[in-house]
Amino acid sequence: RWQKIFMFPLWSKMAVFWNKMFLTIIVLLIVLFLDAVREVRKYSSVHVNEKAANVNSSAFDHIQMKLFRSQRNLYLSGFSLFLWLVLRRTVTLLTQLAKEMASHAALETQVNDATEAAKKYMAENERLQEALSGKGNGKKKESTDATEEKLKEEVERLKAELQKTSNAFHKAKTEVAAVKKQSEGLRRDYDHLMKEYEQLQQNLNKAEDKKDL
């Protein structure tokens, strides 16, 4: 289902646009993060200097408000930048998982087809052997031997192809399991970060409410 959604022709046409938009948002978040770091350092130093100078309370409260807002902007821009990268990685893993699942299904179909063909040739070989055991004509026997030898070669070739396809199938299955495991780990990390982000947001809201009071 995800593969069908991601493989729409519309997405391929908009891929360049979305990549540019993603890079633009990354650059914007980096700029906001660096600006927030600068503001925090600026108002932290001013806060210490004003506190040491024992200025009036209104100016000190104003500096504290600026420091709080700059710290809030720092946390929000930092978490937004990190979560945006996590989202990008999650989409990439989902796309890889969909492709691996599709290749897994194709390899399974190929293995089934090769197995059916091998069974068919083996059944024909058995019928030829039965016919050979019931006839004594030398010319027919020689012709049947040649046909049997050819069928044996064909069976061996199909067995080799079946083994090769089976190995590719197991390899794809292992890759799919690895991608699934990586996706689960990333999802757990994402859930943990979201919980920390919500807790930090609640703390910031409480601190802002206290500041307003």
TrEMBL record:
Keyword Phosphoprotein: no
Domain Bap31/Bap29 cytoplasmic coiled-coil: 153-212
InterPro entries (UniProt xref): BAP29/BAP31 (IPR008417), BAP29/BAP31_N (IPR040463), Bap31/Bap29_C (IPR041672)
A GO CC term attached to the entry: endoplasmic reticulum membrane
BAP29/BAP31 transmembrane domain location: 1-106
Alphabetized UniProt keyword annotations: Apoptosis, Coiled coil, Endoplasmic reticulum, ER-Golgi transport, Membrane, Protein transport, Transmembrane, Transmembrane helix, Transport
Gene3D superfamilies the UniProt entry points to: 1.20.5.110
Biased composition regions of type Basic and acidic residues, renumbered to the chain: 139-153
GO biological process, one term: apoptotic process
Residue ranges crossing the lipid bilayer per the database entry: 74-91
Pfam families from the UniProt entry: Bap31 (PF05529), Bap31_Bap29_C (PF18035)
Membrane topology per record: Multi-pass membrane protein
Major site of localization recorded for this protein: endoplasmic reticulum
Disordered as annotated region, ranges: 129-153
Location of the protein in the cell: Endoplasmic reticulum membrane
Job description of the protein: May play a role in anterograde transport of membrane proteins from the endoplasmic reticulum to the Golgi.
Similarity-based family: Belongs to the BCAP29/BCAP31 family.
Name this protein carries in UniProt: Endoplasmic reticulum transmembrane protein
